[in-house]
Amino acid sequence: MQALKGVKVIELGQLIAGPFAGKTLAEFGADVIKVEPVGTGDPLRKWRMLREGTSVWWEVQSRNKRSVELDLRSAEGQAIVRALAREADVLIENFKPGTLEGWGLGWDALQALNPRLVMLRISGYGQTGPYRHKPGFGVLGEAMGGLRHLSGEPGRVPVRVGISIGDSLAALHGVIGILTALYHRDARGGSGQMIDVALYESVFNVMESLVPEYDAFGAVRERAGSALPGIAPTNAYRCADGGYALIAGNGDSIFKRLMAVIGRPDLENDAALAQNDGRVARVDELDRAIEAWTLQRPLDAVLQALEQASVPAGRVYSVKDIVDDPQYRAREMVIEHRTADGSMLKVPGIVPKLSATPGAITRAAPRLGEHTGEVLATRGWPQRKEC
Questions:
Q1: Which residues belong to the active site?
Q2: CA angle 367, 368, 372 (to 5 degrees)
């Protein structure tokens, strides 16, 4: 039995943040009913690269879910959501604040119908505050949360991470909130509750020591390329064949082993470099010494020598490297999955790994409205494809 088997989830969200949270719950056994707009469905069905008219991203984001077509602007669609919410454990939405209230489906209305309901609300800026009504996408949350300011090379335009990291972070925070709320409800005898997740706050929550450094020292952390300011040495170092070795020699004992490998006993035994603060003061010198060594060797030789010395190091992976890598295969992190049209597709595996109740892919991503009749018929509604 999967850990969340029996948990009933209604997913009203679209695109990334809300559906990613639903995906995670579904992988561990929750019954996720995904409500999609009539005729068009979730816009993610048409995002990025399409195969046979459907995004291959969709096959990952919506696996294990059931699809129901509803017009949430109609009285009938709203009535069906209320009926579904009465028996649900969780409802997920990521509309702009106030949208569900306009349809009579806000927190107060649904809680009155089902006091045990846990409702996850993901938005750009949260359900309160002066920015609550602003539309917000992940890219804006990444910028406001402080991540964009730190991404890129010094003196150049701030760059975005190549994925929608703000949406994914919001989804993961939402899942944490859902599981916490379910535990409070079921193990502590509590009631349901509303979980308010803002995109920018989810990014901000992983910004480490940014605020206390500013408060204590007036320090504004800036872009630093591939280095990690204040921790040394750790960087990407060029190799003789044009590759880059990522080397993390910032532990005190690791640093000594690294200096021994590159043939710098003077730095290895320098008392001023024994701890991180001393190394940070001379980080440019250390980076030059390390790269002088890596530039004389191809990437594979560099990584082999560092592995033998137990110095953490690695290469920059492309997706081809990921698919071909034995570690990914051994932990089933790239798996082949049969889609709804019968074709096979490599997709990411499931995280985290649970020893007793592991996640699983039990159902292909649904065709639009595939389960509308099934879901409505079991609840006494007419068996129509769309409402």
A1: 167
A2: 105
